[in-house]
Amino acid sequence: MKNGEGYWRAVGETPDGKWLLEEGAVVNGIKDGKWIGKLADSTRYYEEVYDLGQFKSGVSWINGTKTEYASARVQPEFKGGVKELYKFLGMNIRYPVDAARSGVSGRVMLSFVVCEDGSMCEYKVENRVGYGLDEEALRVVKLMNGKWNPGEMRGQKVRVKYNVPINFQIEGPTFRR
After folding, report:
1. Is residue 3 very low, low, confident or very high in pLDDT (cuts 50, 70, 90)?
2. Do 82 and 90 form a contact (C-beta atoms < 8 A)?
3. Per the database record, which ranges form the TonB C-terminal domain (predicted)?
């Protein structure tokens, strides 16, 4: 490849420790035309078509099973979308009494994994606030289990780590429960 033009071939490691070869044409430093990828153990193979960096279509084979896909990657999504996610949180969160009495507000950042079947696992509080806010945020996030559409990579459902911030804010000078 020269000056962002030519043919690109790369070897890398997948998250599960397998070697992946990916190759295809590059125009102006971006993918163009047909790209192929395959695992060194030949259990997975894919072909994707790009038009000046824009993904157009793809097909993958895993252990001989063919899958066509319209997006290379699909992020997990709460059923009904982001609006429904925040509606769910708003309807289920209860401001902890200790935090309210102490006038504590803050943002709790949680992470979890959306599994291949849409269930959730590996919950973690990434940013703690205290005063019961962390526990309440985690309690409500766990209520969302089973309410997710899983993520996909090259037409196959995959586990994806997801982060969600939950803001706790006391409104007005007086807060009563």
Report:
1. confident
2. no
3. 80-177
Q: What is the DSSP letter of 2?
A: B
Place of tokens 């943002």: 107
Average of pLDDT values for 150-175?
Answer: 86
Tokens 């290379």 correspond to: 72
Q: What is the pLDDT of residues 97-117, one digit of tens each?
A: 999 999 999 999 999 999 999
58 shares its domain with 127: no
Of 70, 86, 109, the one marking the end of a domain is: 70
- Residues across the chain: 177
Same domain, 20 and 65: yes
For residues 162 and 150, give the distance between their C-alpha atoms in angstroms, rounded to a whole number.
Answer: 11
- At 103, the amino acid letter reads G
Section 4-13 average pLDDT: 93
Range of the domain at 58: 6-70
DSSP 150: P
**Cα–Cα distance for residue pair 77/87, rounded to 1 Å:** 14
